[in-house]
Write a structure and sequence with these properties.
The protein is of the alpha/beta class. Helices cover about 35% and strands about 20% of the residues. Strands 1-2-3-5-4-6-7-8-9 form a nine-stranded mixed β-sheet, with helices on both faces.
Length: about 300
Amino acid sequence: MVVASLWGIAQAADSDITLTTATGSICGTLTLPTKLPSPVVLIIAGSGPTDRNGNSGVVQPDSYALLAAALVARGIATVRYDKRGVAASAAAGPAEIDLRFDMYADDAAAWVRMLAVDKRFSKIVVAGHSEGSLLGMLAVQHAPATAYVSLEGAGRPAPVILREQLKPKLPTALYAQADATITQLSQGHTVPNPPMELASLFRPSVQPYLISWFTYDPAIEIAKLQIPATIVQGTADIQVSLADANLLKHADPSATLLIVQGMNHVLKHAPDTSSQAAILKGYTDSSLPIEPHVVEAIAAAS
């Protein structure tokens, strides 16, 4: 059973918020507007050790913190959190070999259920970024959200995208081994001895997680939604393509599709899109504001 714990008063801008689970606390930040009740947006982070502010390693755009600040200025509350195993939620994370994609989706659904019983909130919007887009789709199938927003979310299964990313980067023989490994994982089988050159991606301890992730097709999952959906995609995203956004829209024709010219994967406007290196500069510059069209799209869904 999940037990909720909240701190702070309505007039406070930021306060701690904690989701207590059987395996530990998942910690986040609640940003409240002065006037309540208000809509609340649950921001679900992307892949890897991305924290509640949208930062991971050298990638430091502060995207989620900036998004929260922009939304509260419009009278919209937000919750952003460190996924289990990440930053302040590190203790809630299992050993890597025991981690499953569904755990993240279950956590997101638990956040929604927690917010649904809080009388300070009139609506609950789930906004999932990157990998968080699929997690959000799964969460709202099992929790009472009002609306869903996909921010730079994939429209194809992970194995398809992974092959697309690896093929131009690997020698032919090594790609063939990677392809065979992906096939085995997609069929639910672990690979005891993946190529050493690919150990960071296919190490045995991460394979159960990949198997659990590979079972999902975002286009199938978004078609299951019974609430209004919005799909936001930037034209300067070098990780997720316009084709992905179009696949999601095709799967859910009632969804609103917003194409944002010049926006990169971390929800910032890329002033220079002449090269990949130029686009990537936005990944490390927290002084760049959040793309206004993202704020408008989420506000409209709220």
